[in-house]
Amino acid sequence: QMQLVESGGGLVQAGGSLRLSCEVSGRTISNNVMGWLRQAPGKEREFVAAIRWDAGKTAYADSVKGRFTISRDNAKNTVYLQMDSLNVEDTADYYCAARRAFFGSVSSRVHDYDYWGRGTRVTVSS
User: Fold this and answer.
1) What pLDDT, on a 0 to 100 scale, did the predictor assign at position 1?
2) Percent of the chain beyond pLDDT 90?
3) Are 74 and 104 in contact (CB under 8 A)?
């Protein structure tokens, strides 16, 4: 079983940056696809970014492409999301998630992720 804990959220002005971290315990993440997803108030949870188990492939939602960067440090069992040029529409609770299957493929489907953290809130003010 994996336990995922997000950190790094907060309040930031539009145009600013934040770096989210996801520390995982319970088992190694080195064989798993990891992702970041978000849920804005009153909206459904949506895909943000994902990274393959070996960091050889990444995927991004169109809304964040070019502004957000996902990365991982398997030695630290940690995944990161660097968020630059933030805008008000990025305000949401951000969740770290993992796919259960080993050596799986990167996915943008919310339901493909099996383990979830409790989320960290990001608020972008205008």
Assistant:
1) 86
2) 96
3) no
